[in-house]
Amino acid sequence: MNKTKDLILRYFILIVVALPGLSLFYLLFSPLTFYPSYWLLNLFYDASICISCNNIPTILISALRIEIIGACVAGSAYYFLLILNLATPKINFGKRLKMLGLGFGVFLVLNILRIFSMGLLYVSGSPLFDFAHKFIWYIGTTLFVVGIWFIEVKLFKIKEIPFYSDVKELYSTTKRK
């Protein structure tokens, strides 16, 4: 596939995925996040799932409710990984799929472990819960995504820079004409 078609296809996919908002990511990753988090917490506590909790996936432990809202699923983080992947040129289709699988998989595991550890702090009544919850939400999730991207760049030997390499290529192409 030539460079122009590749560029148009990559950005077209990003736009099509963005049109319905992040609902695609939440549809896919909500159950993949909720159930493993529940199973892990159930190893330590007598946890149950609340079926009628205002359509919010909820884990009940004693009288405590752990609601797994959209922000917990972090659909925007998955979309950011997709953006980084598709905004980077010169990656063949197979490698691109492997990178997406690895990136999404690693983030999913980290996110489940984050929810599990926050659940442990919350149920134990730890005074660290509020600080840890806010710190990991505001800073940790971003660091997870950036860290995953840098690891993928190293593992898959990516030489291009998202967006910049495309702009640079477009500029050099138009300059030649």
Strand and helix layout:
Layout: H1 3-18, H2 23-44, E1 47-50, E2 58-61, E3 64-67, H3 70-73, H4 75-86, H5 93-124, H6 129-155, H7 164-176
Antiparallel strand pairs: 1-2, 2-3
Count the helices. How many? Answer: 7
Shape: elongated
| Helical amount | over 70%
Largest sheet: 3 strands, antiparallel
Beta strand %: 5-15%
Kindly state the mean pLDDT as a whole number?
A: 91
Query: How many domains make up the 3D coordinates?
Result: 1
Pattern of helices and strands: HHEEEHHHHH
Radius of gyration from CA coordinates: 20 Å
- Structural class label: mainly alpha
Distance between the ends: 21 Å
Number of separate strands: 3
Unreliable residue runs: none
Main β-sheet, spatial strand arrangement = 1-2-3
3D architecture notes:
The chain has 177 residues and is mostly helical. It is 71% helix and 7% strand. It has a 3-stranded antiparallel β-sheet, covered by helices on one side. It is elongated, with a radius of gyration of 20 Å. The two termini are 21 Å apart.
Task: Provide tags for this entry.
three-stranded antiparallel beta sheet, 3 strands, 177 residues, mainly alpha
Brief sketch in words of this structure:
The protein is mainly α and about 180 residues long. The chain contains seven helices and three strands, in the order ααβββααααα. It has helices at about 5-20, 25-45, 70-75, 75-85, 95-125, 130-155, 165-175, and strands spanning about 45-50, 60, 65.
